[in-house]
Amino acid sequence: MENFDELLKKYADFIVRVGVNPQPGQTLIINCPLEGAPLARLCVRSAYEVGARDVQVNWSDDAVARARMELGSEEALTDHKPWQLRRYLDYAESEGGVCVLHLIADDPELYAGIDGNKISRVNAARRAFMEEWQEYTMNDRVQWSIAALPSMPWAKKVFPELDADAAMEALWKLIFDVCRVTGGDPVNEWQAHMERLSTLRDKMNALDLESVHFKSSNGTDLTVGLADQAVWESAASKSEKGVVFLPNIPTEEVFTAPHKDRVEGIVYGTKPYVFNGQLIKNFRVTFEKGRVVDYHAEQGQVLLGRLLDGDEGSRSIGEVALVPASSPINRSGKLFYSTLFDENAACHIAFGASYPGTTKGGTALTKEELLTRGMNQSRLHEDVMIGAEDSHITGKCRDGRTVELFRDGVWVL
């Protein structure tokens, strides 16, 4: 690819400086697959240039991960040691603090053919073990960001008509395009984009909505009641120390917290979803009083059931997000088979936990206080795409007005 090294450097600088935004004296932890080494090295340098105290890189490898899941005993795979949690908490509790960057290279079918029950139990055990650290990220107590790079299996899934090298190049180009790197100045472009999303966020908050209603020709007819004192948020987040960061790269959403008991109707998935390294396609779910009471998927029916039965809160939703069909990810015409991208091509809901920051003053509330407001509690947070090209979305205000939000899949607010 022409100018690849220059584009990769710009991508790395943007990921670090706008995405995770390490502050002077902070430690940055980077989690990265082996094939991401060139990008990780640039991120390390960029972090030091902005004043990071230290940068630690944790390497991973999909081939090893699959071999462990396939051949390792469940007892060994769930035998977590204290240092695996403390390596985050020790830095988080230190004077300089910590921020975390996840560089991911998705293989949408990494665990295809492996016992799904085993995968679910192993992943559930890890979520339970890491719950104390999850409290930091869910409450934005630290900066964190997720960004992607191609892997060969992922590139071939997105571009099956190309040979391996051409598919990798095509996926790199696509990532640079939808992440606004190709244009030449991603830092300034993203700052302008975040301002646009913030304007939409402010308009949504000014409406004082009690519910939103989704309807589309595929059969979706869903009313999502909002949590008490729900707050709409957009791309950028702010840590408890006031540091602005961008959790997801890319991002196109304006989102808030549903009330866990006030979701009614039926909704159809509009894009495949990857869960536990396996695909769920063409699904529908029916809600009554906030909980899924019926579900079906043309592919991954059993897998969808495992997701919904993950814990007490996984049959309710913790997020509802509005994303226009005009987003760069959707306009690309490509299905990414990656939630990081596909959730920013379509409106979505998330089974599982609410983000405390999506209710007023929520990051300072206890779990019991959050539950009182209708905020869902779970160890899961799994986004699934429900937006269609003809989605019609309205909002019901607390003063009784009905306001049109989306027509034919795009904002009209």
Automatic annotation (TrEMBL):
<dbReference type="GO" id="GO:0008237">
    <property type="term" value="F:metallopeptidase activity"/>
</dbReference>
<comment type="similarity">
    <text>Belongs to the peptidase M29 family.</text>
</comment>
<dbReference type="InterPro" id="IPR052170">
    <property type="entry name" value="M29_Exopeptidase"/>
</dbReference>
<keyword id="KW-0645">Protease</keyword>
<dbReference type="Pfam" id="PF02073">
    <property type="entry name" value="Peptidase_M29"/>
</dbReference>
<keyword id="KW-0479">Metal-binding</keyword>
<dbReference type="GO" id="GO:0046872">
    <property type="term" value="F:metal ion binding"/>
</dbReference>
<keyword id="KW-0031">Aminopeptidase</keyword>
<dbReference type="GO" id="GO:0006508">
    <property type="term" value="P:proteolysis"/>
</dbReference>
<dbReference type="GO" id="GO:0004177">
    <property type="term" value="F:aminopeptidase activity"/>
</dbReference>
<dbReference type="InterPro" id="IPR000787">
    <property type="entry name" value="Peptidase_M29"/>
</dbReference>
<protein>
    <submittedName>
        <fullName>Aminopeptidase</fullName>
    </submittedName>
</protein>
<keyword id="KW-0482">Metalloprotease</keyword>
<dbReference type="InterPro" id="IPR035097">
    <property type="entry name" value="M29_N-terminal"/>
</dbReference>
<keyword id="KW-0378">Hydrolase</keyword>
